[in-house]
């Protein structure tokens, strides 16, 4: 992939996806990329590594529906000779024996184990557990009349729910360390070491699998260990990391992004309590307008092919622009993104590698319970800063606020 070749991701017009001044308003970036490049744009990842960003809804749908052309095994990547050992995106693209990188019958086998383990989760029981977790978290700050909901509530609730679901003790320092390391590996801030954080996550989940092998329980990990497919412990470790990571960071941002909408948009702020616009509608609108997983890396071209008028070479990396696809003007010609409240968004991806059933429903239970409990317990909750002062984390991968400070009438302990 020489940098001077037309149609190559590294050619002169490629846009760097790191350090953008418009990370606070990525929609502007996507509009600009569409105007200049169309539905498939040449971009540069960290360290000026070339890739393609797939922006169009039809194009993302096509890529995710055609595994024979755009596969998940990252060992196909033609850029590996240029990737340093400390590259910050290695936790995303470094090949692991995980369901994320499997293909064909092996992917069906691995995804089937996950789906069956998750299907056995009683959604009413999960909702009950989430309510107990929400009450405990709210009790910790209800008397002060103020809270920062990202750290005190939105991140904590889905992580505690997810680790309980997988058989880990909730509320321990060990679990808190896991939360921190997962956040670092998925969405590293300046000075963080995402590769080292991911190694610590692996070590903690290895201990969980070992413990559950010795003493199984009514949890996702034990069901995976005793599934007839007979997955190896290392395969289960990698798949559990995928389950917990998908349950925590995206769900936390889904909760907080929805709370931001409810607290700043008069359509919701004035009507949720009256029942005219539901929390469910707000959750769906966020998946269209401010989806927690903005971009996903990725797919790798199996052979030379065409996409969106671009020549994609074998081994090229494609980043799935889920947020850009969800706001594609081709599907929202009037600009009213998410107005119909339908669920044809790509926030859980699409095709064989989409978020496995019933994971989206479990995430919805967590998010809905978190929001409804907060609004019920603190009915006059409001932002404690001007809405325009809220800032987004400087990430092109995850869409979430740095903080969501609120105030409310203190509640007696």
Tell me what the structure shows.
The chain contains 15 helices and eleven strands. By secondary structure, the protein is of the alpha+beta class. The chain has a single domain, classed as Cytochrome p450 (Orthogonal Bundle). The strands form three sheets. Strands 1-2-3-9-6-4 form a six-stranded mixed β-sheet. A three-stranded antiparallel β-sheet has the order 5-11-10. α1 (26-37) links the parallel β1 and β2. The model is unreliable at 1-7 (pLDDT under 50). This is Cytochrome P450.
Can you give me a brief rundown of this structure?
The protein has 413 residues and is α+β, with helices and mostly antiparallel strands. The protein has helices spanning 26-37, 57-65, 90-93, 104-119, 123-141, 149-154, 156-165, 173-186, 194-214, 220-225, 233-264, 266-269, 279-289, 322-326, 359-377; strands spanning 15-16, 40-45, 49-54, 70-71, 146-148, 296-301, 305-307, 310-312, 317-320, 382-383, 405-407. The N and C termini lie far apart (63 Å).
